[in-house]
Amino acid sequence: MKNISKILAGILFSALVMAPSYAGELAVSGGATATYSTNGDDSSAGKNLGISNEIDFTANGELDNGYTWKYQVQLDGATTANDDTRLELGTDYGTVGFYVSEGGMSAELHGVGAMGPGFDYVSPTSFTNGYDVDGYSNIQYHLPSGLLPFGIGAKLGYVPNLSATAMLSAKDSVAASAIANDNVGRNLTALQLSAAPIDGLSLKGDVQATDDESGVTASTETGISGNVGGSYTSGPLSIGVVVGANQAAVASGEVTYYENQYVGVQYDINDSLSVSYNIDESLQTQRTAVGAGATTGNKVTADMKQKSIQVAYTMGGATIGITNVEVDNSDYTIGKEESQTVFSLGISF
Hints:
The chain is mostly beta strands.
């Protein structure tokens, strides 16, 4: 961890020892989506109508030596809190970025889906996909683009404190009560690799692991997750596949881990109309420690599978969508089934 911190600090220091930057430009973009959903799960919420929104304020500028900077803050969700924020500095040596609830590096989404890759758009249940730095305040280093052959790219991310999830002002300090030991590790390190070896083919993989800094009451086992996969597009047809696994850090011998597989197929009928079919599957395995007087522990599995059909029609800056989702063994509960249909109208600006 110390070497990673020194590398990031060195790159940042060399980029900042320079004259002031030119004035930047501010741009506003975003979108709003109205949805009408019908639910058919075990605890049905009936019919629901909602509007989601996301507004991005983005400022860009350039330093007098050609280095660039970008600042972005988002207003989204049910509140106006600017919880999604990034500040990036582009240099000849790569990009250094500071993120709050941004900069996701997990590669569990293959990007194939008329209305979004599977559970990324809508899901009546929750998949356990492992760790990702974008749930916390994090710092990243991105290798310069074009440096390696076959479009190979690399990103390194670091979360200094998994207990601190709230956005802080520049001189704020976290209250002592918020710096308690965390049973999933105190920090998180992530590595993402990507490649585009041929036209239409995109490959990506990630590995993320926690580390216990306290050595006292935090976890005795490192939490880890990883994904590998990609997508291929040829004409109107796109196919995406991702496989992954994850295990949270634990403080005892009891372990729960997940093996995931996500597959999506999308066909663009024309420039306006697209259809897709996704199958997302997650196998949960729970293992318990060997108890007193016993010779073996227990092992229980639950295989959750989600199937989704999506149709999207785009006209100008508007997209009309229909998404139907059915889940077997929902919430990793054997025999529990859920379903949901969502009609949506999205506007981009």
